[in-house]
């Protein structure tokens, strides 16, 4: 695997620093939510509904209650009512964020298979598991709808989707007239299997009460989101709930919204008067943490003979839950990628017997861009243009949706760099052969929005008299390396070596920042950390200037630099002193500052997107239906790179997830039972090392002065979008057949897709 990183920076920011938590993770010292040892710890096991729709007619827990070690069996008959079901809000807001506006075990209705119907608490996990099998539940089953084909005729157009944040219909110009007048049209339906996140760490919460105060160890993308959601559900002031989540072992959106289990763990702990650990099984993760919904997208492109787009119509149909109008926003970025005056995007939903779908790895962009970029490849063929040239011809200098200029761009350079890295000029020649393998090249453009939080982001920085610092914000490291990156940002702003700086997160007792979702963590938190650390440095410099005992007494603060913890005159570096000397001389044990950053207003006169380009080389055996991705080359323009190593890892991981989306991932529903048929890692395929091709990650430098103080646009998800269409387009190049379904399977290659 190769990479071109930005030129090494002078200070800590940008350097390919190893993870500060790497040692703790590989030695097992890092503690996850289901590993917290507590005196008197008890264990809870969930029982899920066997039917997808209906009612509980009887629930008999006597035998379970009598089983050895059992402390409580909670059902809708004895759990008690929740205080209030908070509204659905993306957890980016940093407040309440329930996974769905339904809470189980409040009544006898069953809305989806696997819905929690009982919770068994015992003194050991094994005893709780055993007793959970003794809970007898009888159901009156009703017909269910779980797949598009069962509910097509009852689809409706919601006013808004995505927790109300995105309108159900978006239009500009006159798409009908423009399609009628277009020289060329491409019109197809694209289908997508449902997907599940499958992080390595399954969700878990450990809860205990001390009087009326609750402590929750949760595996989450945002401790504050858990705190506020559980507070609302339990009717307990959030100030009495502390949520700790130091490490999260992968998430991909499954821990962005707060699902039912942390609140259930808290309720169970209150009931038994002891700490309760509630860890979901892998199978339960398929019904208790949301999923990417099955979907169909109908895309129509209209263009002139020159390949310039004149019309884009994009309709999506997908199942949602009985409670919420949720769809991932697949039409978003696909409608903003290219200049196109006439546009119509429409979401349609089907009420289905599943949990509310949720964010999952590049939610919306990854599917919407598959339809768009596959259709663009076909358009290139129809107008006889190189696919790369077609993209450049439709390049948009501003956001076609809002008309606002991009705060920074880089798409053109990404397209050119990616083409260079994959050797795109080879595509002009007839596809190559390697024995039975036909070789194809494909490409796609990609983009991901730059999301900002709604509330100010805060951090705290403290310097001790020994010259070391601790900097804090409530962010959780979900595997991205944010603890490392924030250490670098803090060290740079304070003028300290990274070894003397420690960053702490993952605790609601720390200054509040929004959840790590939507690729926004690095941008948001670095802004707050930078503000706090800079404020502390200014405070220390001001103290030195005011101190008669300091060599810097009376100097102009603006003329002072700090390097390696030493404040010096920029023009006379021999004059100065260490932070530590200043504090020790004055008998000051520590000094502290907080900093906050408010995001740009939503009506700011620019639009922000992280752009990139994806290229794939595949080998296809058309007789056996095999596809092997040999190379992926991605070029991205994510703004300031805070750590060359972790940024590259994020993008490379995203690209491999893109390969996974293209060729592997599918959760199959059994409509007869309304249950997911392959709810295990044995049958839900995710890529392993042997599936990973040669991955080339390349950076295009762009400066963005408006998204946040450091110009960080995010690398969490843009690496995934565009990979699946690049692979599908490469397959078309190799064998001459279009793939319009994900994942692409052996059958699709053999039968013609
Ligand atoms: Mo990420 S799928 O936006 O949590």
Please explain how this structure is put together.
Residues 27-143 form the Aldehyde oxidase/xanthine dehydrogenase a/b hammerhead domain. InterPro entries: Ald_Oxase/Xan_DH_a/b, Ald_Oxase/Xan_DH_a/b_sf, Ald_Oxase/xanthine_DH-like, AldOxase/xan_DH_MoCoBD1, AldOxase/xan_DH_MoCoBD2, AldOxase/xan_DH_Mopterin-bd_sf. The structure is a single chain. With 753 residues, the protein is α+β, with helices and mostly antiparallel strands. Among the domains are: 2-29 and 453-597, Aldehyde Oxidoreductase, domain 4, CATH 3.30.365.10; 33-143 and 204-287, Aldehyde oxidase/xanthine dehydrogenase, a/b hammerhead (Aldehyde Oxidoreductase, domain 3, Alpha-Beta Complex), CATH 3.90.1170.50. The strands form eight sheets. It has a seven-stranded mixed beta sheet with strand order 4-6-2-15-12-13-14. Strands 1-32-29-28-20-19 form a six-stranded mixed beta sheet, sandwiched between helices. Helix 6 packs across helix 7 (261-272) and helix 9 (365-382) crosses helix 10. The chain is globular. The model has no long low-confidence stretch (mean pLDDT 96). The structure holds dioxothiomolybdenum(VI) ion. Residues 221, 252-253, 256, 359-361, 363, 517-518 line the site of dioxothiomolybdenum(VI) ion (MOS).
């Amino acid at each position: 695997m190769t990479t071109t990183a930005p030129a090494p920076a002078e200070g800590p920011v940008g350097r390919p620093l190893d993870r500060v938590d790497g040692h703790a993770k590989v030695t097992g010292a890092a503690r996850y939510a289901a590993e917290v040892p507590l005196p008197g710890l008890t264990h809870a096991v969930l029982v899920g509904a066997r039917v997808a729709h209906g009612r509980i007619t009887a629930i008999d827990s006597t035998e379970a209650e009598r089983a050895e070690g059992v402390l409580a069996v909670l059902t809708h008959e004895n759990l008690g009512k929740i205080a209030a079901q908070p509204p659905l809000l993306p957890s980016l807001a940093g407040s309440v964020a329930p996974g769905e506006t339904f809470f189980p075990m409040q009544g006898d209705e069953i809305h989806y298979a696997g819905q929690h119907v009982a919770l068994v608490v015992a003194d050991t996990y094994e005893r709780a598991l055993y007793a959970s099998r003794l809970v007898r539940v009888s159901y009156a089953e009703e017909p269910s709808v779980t797949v598009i084909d069962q509910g097509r005729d009852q689809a409706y157009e919601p006013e808004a989707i995505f927790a109300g944040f995105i309108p159900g219909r978006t239009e500009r110009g006159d798409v009908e007239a423009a399609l009628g007048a277009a020289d060329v049209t491409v019109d197809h339906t694209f289908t997508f299997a449902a997907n599940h996140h499958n992080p390595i760490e399954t969700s878990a919460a450990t809860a205990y009460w001390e009087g009326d105060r609750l402590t929750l160890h949760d595996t989450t993308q945002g401790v504050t989101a858990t705190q506020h959601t559980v507070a609302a559900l339990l009717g307990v002031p959030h100030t009495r709930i502390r949520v700790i989540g130091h490490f999260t072992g992968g998430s991909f959106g499954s821990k962005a919204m707060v699902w039912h289990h942390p609140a259930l763990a808290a309720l169970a702990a209150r009931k038994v008067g002891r700490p309760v650990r509630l860890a979901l099984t892998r199978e339960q993760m398929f019904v208790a943490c949301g999923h990417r919904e099955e979907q169909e997208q109908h895309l129509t492109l209209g263009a002139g003979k020159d390949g310039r787009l004149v019309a884009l119509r994009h309709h999506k149909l997908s199942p949602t839950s009985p409670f919420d109008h949720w769809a991932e926003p697949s039409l978003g970025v696909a409608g903003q990628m290219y200049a196109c005056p006439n546009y119509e995007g429409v979401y349609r939903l089907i009420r289905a017997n599943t949990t509310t779908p949720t964010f999952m790895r590049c939610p919306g962009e990854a599917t919407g861009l598959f339809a768009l970029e596959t259709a663009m490849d076909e358009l290139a063929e129809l107008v006889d243009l190189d696919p790369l040239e077609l993209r450049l011809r439709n390049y948009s200098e501003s956001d076609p949706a809002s008309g606002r200029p991009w705060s920074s761009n880089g798409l053109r350079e990404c397209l050119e760099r990616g083409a260079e890295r994959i050797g795109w000029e080879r595509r002009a020649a007839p596809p190559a052969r390697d024995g039975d393998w036909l070789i194809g090249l494909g490409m796609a453009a990609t983009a991901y929005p730059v999301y900002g939080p709604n509330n100010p982001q805060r951090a705290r920085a403290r310097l001790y008299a020994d010259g070391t610092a601790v900097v804090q914000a409530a962010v959780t490291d979900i595997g991205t390396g944010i603890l490392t990156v924030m250490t670098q940002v803090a060290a740079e702003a304070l003028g300290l070596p990274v070894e003397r700086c420690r960053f702490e997160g993952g605790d609601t007792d720390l200054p509040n920042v929004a959840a790590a979702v939507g690729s926004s963590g690095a941008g948001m938190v670095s802004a707050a950390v930078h503000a706090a650390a800079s404020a502390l440095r200014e405070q220390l410099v001001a103290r030195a200037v005011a101190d008669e005992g300091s060599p810097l007494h009376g100097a102009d603060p603006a003329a002072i630099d700090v390097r390696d913890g030493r404040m010096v005159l920029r023009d006379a570096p021999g004059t100065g002193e260490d932070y530590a000397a200043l504090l020790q001389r004055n008998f000051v044990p520590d000094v502290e500052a907080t900093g906050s950053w408010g995001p740009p207003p939503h009506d700011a006169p620019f639009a922000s997107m992280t752009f990139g380009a994806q290229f794939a080389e595949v080998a296809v055996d058309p007789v056996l239906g095999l596809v092997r991705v040999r190379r992926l080359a991605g070029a991205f323009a994510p703004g300031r790179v805070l750590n060359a190593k972790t940024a590259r890892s994020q993008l490379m991981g995203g690209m491999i997830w893109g390969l996974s989306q293209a060729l592997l991932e599918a959760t199959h529903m059994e409509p007869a039972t309304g249950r997911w048929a392959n709810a295990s890692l044995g049958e839900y395929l995710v890529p392993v090392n042997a599936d990973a091709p040669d991955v080339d990650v390349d950076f295009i430098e762009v400066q963005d002065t408006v998204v946040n103080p450091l110009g960080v646009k995010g690398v969490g998800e843009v690496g995934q979008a565009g990979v699946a269409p690049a692979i599908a387009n490469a397959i078309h190049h190799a064998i001459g057949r279009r793939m319009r379904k994900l994942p692409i399977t052996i059958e699709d290659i053999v039968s013609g897709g």
